[in-house]
Amino acid sequence: MTNSANPIVELDFSDWAAPAGVPEKQAEWTAAIEAGQVLYFPHLSLQLSPPERALLREDMLKTGSRNVSLGSDGALKHAAGVPEEQKLLAGMLGRYRQLALTLADGLFPHYRGALRAAPTSFRPKQVETRTQSIHADDRRMHFDAFATRPTYGERILRIFTNLNPNGQPRVWRVGEPFETVAKRYLPRIKPYSPFMAQLLNAVGATKSVRSEYDHLMFNLHNLMKEDEQYQKTGTVATQAFPPNCVWIAYADLAAHGVASGQFMVEQTLHLAPGRELNPESSPLAILTRLMGHPLAGVGTAQTV
Ligand code: SIN
Ligand code: FE
User: Looking at residue 6, what is its pLDDT?
Assistant: First the structure.
């Protein structure tokens, strides 16, 4: 089961809770996602009531914001619309969060107790026409890495659902395995400087001190997006996710870019470092092996 053979694994479930009933397949699904494959569920979706469907509008997003988000405290951020619409949107996102958690629990029971849910996001912008800087532009192939929030090896597992009401698919490009891409760019990344990391934190550019792992992931993300040649040649597969389907990927491991689409909900789950079924498959383990020394900071994740 290699990433280059087929990066997309299609699963037939039509009920978010169903994978829990197939324990003999759970290790296989976990191994697939940890190998950088994308799990695709053509028959799962978030059912919307008619008033919820009326929220699928770009003007539900506050001007200047990227996404609407719902925190675990129930606080809705970056939403426009009247209070009644905001309440409906919060309810819809809260429901999605529960479904995403149920699905992850059934697919990956090995992760029980090690997942932390990030805010749930609603992305109503048309991908093709939104204007963004090169580094913020998710149409360009990349691994996810946060500019301001070091992860110290904590993983970024993302559960996506296309809610487009007009028949538009969300089209993704998926790329080569992490290690292949990392080997290409590592020689071009400036050595990690603990002093610079402290300085960035002192001036408020990061929320905690960037570890060497975060320095490498941040630069890898940027170099991939800047590289026009790679952007033209790095695609292994193109997948159109039609309206009303779900897909899951480790966004820090599977190279991806979104080509087109509008109206998606997304739930990020963070897995504690080293809690993979095969910890050797993680970006932290791969980069540690390629660099030949520990990339520090793993133990500090709990303290920041
Ligand atoms: C991402 O690059 O993480 C998001 C892709 C998308 O918006 O479909
Ligand atoms: Fe991404």
Answer: 84
How many angstroms separate the CA atoms of 169 and 17, rounded? 24
| Strands ordered across the beta sheet of 256-260 | 235-241, 170-175, 256-260
CB 258 near ligand 1, within 6 Å: yes
For ligand 1, atom 4, which residue shows the shortest CA distance? 138
In whole angstroms, what is the distance from residue 7 CA to residue 304 CA? Answer: 34
- At residue 130 the predicted structure's pLDDT band, cuts being 50, 70 and 90, is confident
Classify burial at 93, counting beta carbons within 10 Å of its beta carbon; exposed 0-12, middle 13-18, buried 19 or more: buried
Q: In angstroms, rounded to a whole number, what is the distance separating the alpha carbons of residues 135 and 61?
A: 21
Give the separation between CA 36 and CA 253, rounded to whole angstroms. Answer: 6
Which residue has its alpha carbon closest to ligand 1 atom 5? 258
Residue 146 phi/psi, 5-degree rounding, is -95, 130
Q: What is the pTM of this model?
A: 0.95
Fill in the DSSP letter of residue 25: H
Give pLDDT tens digits for 161-189.
Answer: 999 999 999 999 999 999 999 999 999 99
Strands 235-241 and 170-175: antiparallel
Helices 178-185 and 212-226 pack at an angle, to 10 degrees, of 90
Domains of the chain (ranges plus CATH)?
Answer: 8-291 (2.60.120)
CB 173 within 8 A of CB 260: no
Residue 170 in contact with ligand 1 by CB distance below 6 A: yes
